Amino acid sequence: MNGLLVRQLLKLACAKLAILVTTFVIKLYRVRSFIRGIQKQGLPMPPHHWLLGHIPLSASIIGNLPPYAHGVYVGDQIRQRYPHLDSAFYLDNWPLAAPILIVLKPDMMYQLTQANQIPKDKSIRAFLKPLTGESDLATLEGDTWKYWRGMFNPGFSAGHVSSLVPGMIEEIKIFKYLLRKNAESGKMMFLEDASPTSQSISLAELQCMNINLLECINIFRPFVHAYNSYRMNHYLSRELDKRYRSIEGIEIQKKDKSIVDLALKAYLAENPSATGIDKSFQNFAMVQIKLFIFAGHDTTSAGAIFTYHLLSQHENVLAEVRVEHTEIMVSVSSPTE
């Protein structure tokens, strides 16, 4: 009986393996055939291997780049290696990545991103779905995107961003104090505990809600994603309701341009007789707030973290940076800084 069961399981496993291999081969054939077809039509691309596509080319380029270099450098290195590919070209790295069109000229980028409404790639939705679902500004399309983008435009004006500088300075002072304190003690420290990660999130919170938003929340633990999503949504909905009650019946001032105030201003303009925040509007607003906080963290703090990491690994460069800072900062520093 046991032998029969084992044989049945082996047959099932072999059948599944055969299906997977067959599916892979069919997809590989379709992708390579498509790329070879557009190559025959004269569309630009580097030399293409009938089986491996552009994987060998990309691998050779990545091997010559510094560790952790951004993938965007691959396209530029291909342009340098093949100067005739100076406008746009196709790159086929399937199954490691979907085939893409790399655009290099600004006027072509304008055509794709502004002059024409090209559908956004589904990989963006897949990437942001754990955090925002599928209704954030980065993934919305058409009129829905225009509505929400127009709502938040004032919050990103040059004048308003400049008005946030004093708050940024205060956050950087805190970070500087923590760095100096740890430097004096000589103890090893985790940069994440009191680093640009927390500081840039605080700055994003300042822009989004004028409150300290994520004191007790860590959204970067996938294994507790469902729990964290509940906590974030619960906290944000509570803060939205609190802010709504505080301004109910009071006109929001023009200077109030936090993400929350801008969203509530638009909501009150459309629903002047509302006695509370509509659930669907609240959900949309919370999604945008989470996106803005994530975007602020993923750019500023990630860049700062890697900068400190690379400086720690290249002492000669670190020494040059310290000399430059000493020469420049000493002449402009004051006892209050």
From TrEMBL:
The keyword Thylakoid does not apply. It holds the Pfam family p450. Keywords: Heme, Iron, Metal-binding, Monooxygenase, Oxidoreductase, Virulence. Coiled coil: none annotated. One of its GO terms (molecular function) is oxidoreductase activity, acting on paired donors, with incorporation or reduction of molecular oxygen. The keyword NAD does not apply. Belongs to the cytochrome P450 family. This is Similar to similarity to cytochrome P450 monooxygenase. It comes from Botryotinia fuckeliana (strain T4) (Noble rot fungus).
